[in-house]
């Protein structure tokens, strides 16, 4: 006897991924379309709005920009900070307050704020606590299969999927496969429990992830020496003592080459410094005008910028909270943390001891050190996102989506639709979040992600309105139960 499968739930809009990007799209879409009865978010985590970044339970992991610049509602920039003051979260974490009047709470607190905003929408947001495993086009709808064995049919799908996890260097992964303290993904639940207080630790990468790992190890009372390694040895910068408005203009007659862009930025920094400002406000303006700057560059110049300048941009653009900066400074001063500009030459394992040879970037000298643990902090493996995400892999096989030319994520149109195998935009399939940055440009910091989520919500709202006006599918789904 054949078991009859239940009819798939039908909805006007389904969002795959319930981290900040997916939550922001849902929140703003329902604000734009008050008559829309339901939006489904497919997310395996128990709470919406957190994702990987804001699920962190570690109190030493703090937001990287002041709370007054972290808002779900850009036209109310102090919305989160006001919530902080009213919620009592600051009283529970006095270290979140800084003497300069800026608040840097734990990231999990921001996740709680976003989750509360979604909860306030009530049953208009339906959370399917499962992972999306495949998406296929069936006529005028998309059918989404989920890990709990159910299916959802939606007229419009928004992909708000996460970054791929870090990808360690191939030689490192091969040499240390099976080692109990080789952590290719240190954020995997319970991973750091393998480390012992006196372990000598090598961290591969010197950016934001490294800073968070050092802060975590410091909080846990780690005593062993830590070496953080990258080709340039650059660490993320901190925030200025005084805040200034964004400075400079890079959108008027934008640069057409990476070299010209660098010259303009350097000139603006020199001018800002002469006026008593720091470089931070210039980089803030570059970020705000990032999409215009990016889209003015030919593909070859975008590739040059990524190849030669991205590490410098990352450490100036993605700043660390002052509490984390203090941990790094203290550890470096005490000699327990060393930053090295070097490349890995060889990795050998003898029992549980790990011998690593480095080639110094400046002198070319090869040195050898022994460690007890190796952690990967190289950041998301953007180039592997289609290979590692089953939904994107299925969409690519079906010709509905493809990687962008620079392999930063998913190729999209100006209005956020995925581009398929033949270069044709895929109808009613939108992309939210940082994986659209190959087309959009600067799309990693929360203010930029929020503004882009609003753009996607606006595009979806417009599409729903067009369908409603033509008595199309969205009208049918809006009344479905």
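-> sequence recovered:
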């Amino acid at each position: 006897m054949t078991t009859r499968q239940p009819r798939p739930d039908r909805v006007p809009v389904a969002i795959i991924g319930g981290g900040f990007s997916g939550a922001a799209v849902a929140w703003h879409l329902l604000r734009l379309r008050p008559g829309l009865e339901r939006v489904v978010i497919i997310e395996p985590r128990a709470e919406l709005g957190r994702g990987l970044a804001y699920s962190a339970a570690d109190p030493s992991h703090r937001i990287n920009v002041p709370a007054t610049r972290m808002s779900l509602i850009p036209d109310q920039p102090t919305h989160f900070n006001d919530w902080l003051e009213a919620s009592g979260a600051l009283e529970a974490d006095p270290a979140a307050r800084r003497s300069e009047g800026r608040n840097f709470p734990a990231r999990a607190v921001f996740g709680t704020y976003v989750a509360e905003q979604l909860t306030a929408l009530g049953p208009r947001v339906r959370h399917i606590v499962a992972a999306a495993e495949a998406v296929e086009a069936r006529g005028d709808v998309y059918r989404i299969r989920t890990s709990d064995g159910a299916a959802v049919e939606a007229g419009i799908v928004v992909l708000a999927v996460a970054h791929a996890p870090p990808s360690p260097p191939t030689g490192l992964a091969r040499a240390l496969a099976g080692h109990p303290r080789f952590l290719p993904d240190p954020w995997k639940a319970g991973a750091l429990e393998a480390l012992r207080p006196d372990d000598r630790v090598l961290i591969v990468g010197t950016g934001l992830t490294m800073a968070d790992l050092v802060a975590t190890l410091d909080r846990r009372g780690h005593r062993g020496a830590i070496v953080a390694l990258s080709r340039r040895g650059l660490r993320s910068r901190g925030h200025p003592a005084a805040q200034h408005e964004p400075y400079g203009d890079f959108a008027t007659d934008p640069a057409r080459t990476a070299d010209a862009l660098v010259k303009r930025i350097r000139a603006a920094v020199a001018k800002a410094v002469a006026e008593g400002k720091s470089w931070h406000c210039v980089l803030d303006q570059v970020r705000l005008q990032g999409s215009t700057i990016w889209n003015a560059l030919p593909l070859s110049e975008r590739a040059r910028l990524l190849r030669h300048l991205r590490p410098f941009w990352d450490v100036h653009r993605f700043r660390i909270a002052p509490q984390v900066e203090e941990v790094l400074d203290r550890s470096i001063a005490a000699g327990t943390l060393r930053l090295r500009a070097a490349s890995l030459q060889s990795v050998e394992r003898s029992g549980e001891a790990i011998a690593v040879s480095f080639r110094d970037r400046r002198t070319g000298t090869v040195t050898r050190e022994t460690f007890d643990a190796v952690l990967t902090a190289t950041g998301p493996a953007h180039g592997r996102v289609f290979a590692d995400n089953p939904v994107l892999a299925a969409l690519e096989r079906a010709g509905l989506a493809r990687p962008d030319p620079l392999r930063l994520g998913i190729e999209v149109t100006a209005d956020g639709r995925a581009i398929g195998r033949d270069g044709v935009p895929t109808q009613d399939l939108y992309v939210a979040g940082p994986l659209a940055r190959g087309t959009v440009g600067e799309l990693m910091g929360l203010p930029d992600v929020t503004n882009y989520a609003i753009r996607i919500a606006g595009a979806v709202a417009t599409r729903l309105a067009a369908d409603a006006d033509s008595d199309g599918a969205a009208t049918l789904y809006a009344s479905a139960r």
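The chain has 16 helices and 15 strands.
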